[in-house]
Each structure stands twice: as C-alpha cells, then as structure tokens.
Write a structure and sequence with these properties.
Blueprint lengths: L1 E2 L1 H13 L5 E5 L2 E2 L1 H9 L2 E5 H12 L7 E5 L6 E5 L6 E2 L5 E2 L5 H6 L18 E6 L2 E6 L8 E3 L12 E2 L15
Parallel strand pairs: 1-3, 2-4
Antiparallel strand pairs: 5-6, 7-8, 9-10, 10-11, 11-12
Helix pairs in contact: 1-2
C-alpha cells in the first residue's frame, strides 16, 4: 500500500495543531513521489518500507540472525550477496547497483496468521513456507527448487475440506500448477 500526499497533509495538519516543529511519518508501505516532495517542504521525515526494516534490524543488534542470500546483477551477471537485515542495494564487482530481490512485503506475506503452524514437508520433512500464489496462498517447501512439494493452505477464503499433497510431477507444465482444490 502506498501513502500519498493527502495522508501527509493530514499528518502535517496535526503537527500544526500541536505546534510541532517537525514530524516522523512511519509506514510499512511505499510513499508516492508527491508525498515525498511535500514532506521535504514541511519538515516531515519519512521512514518507509526498506528503511523501516533496516531500522528494525539495527535495533536488534547482535540478537538479529542475519539471513544472507545471493542474487545476480542483471547488467553483467555477477553474483552479489544480500542480507535480509538490509534492504539497501549493494554494488557488484563491476560497480553496478543491485537491489534486493526479496522484498519486505514478500517476507511479511509469507508469515502465517497467528495460531497457524507451518506444516512439515511430506517429502523432505523441512518446515514449509506460506507462498502467495496467483490463485491464493498455499504451502510450499522451503527447500524449493530442490523440493517441489506443495500443500493446500487451510486459512484461505475458500474453505477447503482436506489438505491435498502434490509434487512438481503433478504439474502439467512449468509455471502452471494444477488446481489445489
């Protein structure tokens, strides 16, 4: 979700009413360009999305477990190391800026609702992760692409009467999964 100029104008009105010299506008989402320009003119500092995640992990200090992953530079194919604890771009060995490929929204979307425990993969026994698919959420093996096992997600809008196990071999073609109902 994006915060727009109108939301910052309401925030600024509250600042004026309370006679504040400056303010912090904090959001987990994105902020539109118009809102950013408005904030610069009226002494509002915006903390959003990746910057909020960076601040959170910095506040944990050594208690944060750093989860590293690799991605490719699309300009030269060089491999770069990213940290889930930082949503900032990194430079490849050729000096190209490579943004993170795992977004904050994806991390949040993969967290199941309170009270729902992730099942174990029926093939490799690792904990599965919640995936937001085109047809709704489903459980996917956290070892993907090494393991392609999936399970239906019980918490979706459509009530499922049972969990159905499927595997990569059950899919008729790359990228087109069979219905999980």
């Amino acid at each position: 979700m994006s915060s727009d100029r109108q939301q910052l104008q309401k925030f600024h009105s509250a600042m004026v009413t309370d006679k504040a010299d400056a303010g912090f506008f904090v959001t987990t989402g994105r902020v539109t360009d118009g809102a950013i320009e408005f904030a610069k003119r009226v002494s509002i500092e915006i903390i959003s999305g990746g910057a909020l995640l960076d601040t959170y992990f910095q506040s944990l200090g050594d208690a944060a477990t750093d989860v590293a992953y690799q991605s490719l530079c699309i300009q030269c194919g060089d491999t770069v190391a990213h940290s889930l604890c930082s949503q900032s771009p990194v430079l490849c060995s050729n000096g190209h800026s490579v943004g993170p490929t795992i977004k904050f929204d994806d991390v949040v979307a993969a967290i199941p609702s309170p009270g729902i425990r992730a099942p174990k993969c029926p093939k490799c026994s690792t904990t599965m992760r919640l995936v937001q698919g085109k047809r709704g959420p489903f459980w996917g093996c956290s070892r993907w692409p090494a393991c392609h096992s999936t399970l239906a997600y019980q918490g979706s809008r459509r009530r499922r009467t049972r969990m159905r196990q499927s595997s990569w071999r059950d899919h008729s073609s790359w990228g087109t999964p069979k219905s999980r109902t």
